[in-house]
Automatic annotation (TrEMBL):
This is ABC transporter permease. Residues 20-281 form the ABC-type glycine betaine transport system substrate-binding domain. Gene3D superfamilies: Osmoprotection protein (prox), domain 2, Periplasmic binding protein-like II. It comes from Uabimicrobium amorphum. GO terms for molecular function: transmembrane transporter activity. GO terms for cellular component: ATP-binding cassette (ABC) transporter complex. InterPro entries: ABC_Gly_betaine_transp_sub-bd.
């Protein structure tokens, strides 16, 4: 009988020895929130998770995924095309189909899209856009000594980054401020230190500060729909992951994502709390149980006095 229980214990231990799922993220708030949403969702299904949040920029994350340092992170279709060195596609379905097909050759599976696109947008102060009659990106050719603020990643993107954008629109800049902290970039815009910030369509600052987004009238930028991407080896190790992540399909629209970003960046709410609130609101994880004081919470400890 003792031998039976030992064998059963060994079997249970072996079943629980699966390597945890390593979830990564890029360095901005949206990525942190999405990574945490996936982490908590998987944990709710009793899948062990290791958070690597943040992991790095786009290049770091894709290298981490293909090398096995990461199992999952959220990517965007337009960025996926850039990684592949392929031309941009403005058609959402064609872009998703293309990245899904080509990433399969890298051993990576695109999961169902989350429901929003986080597109690059050129943002300026509304009062300045009215005063200078600027509505489109082409209108920026009339701005003398154009000053642009952007993050480092945008300066390094060969197909959909700063240099390619300036060439496409025939723009010349007097100054480019490179800063990865989005709050600093938007503060520089509000203070008049830059004329334009390269932002994201889901940035909470756009609505909060009543900023103007310029029309990409030459359709330079591709569409950037968000979706989890997972290494195929991870799907073999945990076959149910695609169904679990599938619960998020189409659930996060642009308004919802912008509101979550605003909570983190402008209201000081921790991204883990924002993720939990989202999951509970959509009934994907249970509500927090009220902590009740009972005798069960206080294990009885007896001190035996001996003479």
């Amino acid at each position: 009988m003792q031998k039976y229980w030992i064998c059963l214990l060994i079997f249970a231990l072996l079943c629980g020895c699966k390597e945890p799922v390593k979830i990564g993220a890029k360095t901005f708030s949206e990525q942190l929130v999405l990574a945490e949403i996936m982490a908590q969702l998987l944990e709710n299904e009793n899948i062990a998770v290791k958070r690597v949040i943040p992991y790095g920029n786009t290049r770091d994350c894709i290298q981490g995924l293909t090398s096995g340092q990461l199992d999952i992170y959220t990517e965007y279709t337009g960025t996926g095309l850039m990684i592949l060195g392929e031309p941009s596609l403005s058609d959402r379905e064609k872009a998703f189909s293309r990245v899904k097909e080509q990433f399969a050759n890298l051993g990576v599976a695109w999961q169902a899209r989350l429901g929003f696109a986080n597109n690059y947008v050129l943002v300026m102060r509304r009062d300045q856009s009215i005063a200078q009659k600027i509505e489109t990106m082409t209108d920026l050719t009339n701005v003398q000594s154009l000053r642009i603020g952007c993050d480092e990643d945008f300066t390094k993107r060969p197909l959909d980054g700063l240099s390619a954008m300036l060439r496409r629109y025939g723009l010349k800049t007097a100054q480019t401020i490179v800063e990865d902290d989005k709050s600093i970039l938007y503060r520089a815009l509000l203070d008049g230190e830059v004329d334009i910030v390269i932002g994201y369509s889901t940035d909470g600052q756009i609505e909060a500060f009543n900023l103007k987004t310029l029309s990409d009238n030459l359709r330079f930028f591709p569409v950037y729909e968000a979706a989890p991407i997972v290494h195929n080896k991870t799907l073999k190790r945990y076959p149910g992951i695609n169904n679990i992540l599938g619960k998020l399909a189409g659930l996060i629209d642009e308004k919802t994502m912008r509101a979550m970003n605003k909570q983190v960046e402008l209201e000081g709410v921790h991204y883990r709390d924002v993720a939990s609130q989202f999951l509970r609101k959509n009934k994907l994880i249970p509500e927090e149980e009220n902590k009740k004081t009972s005798i069960k919470n206080f294990p009885l400890r007896l001190k035996i006095l001996t003479n």
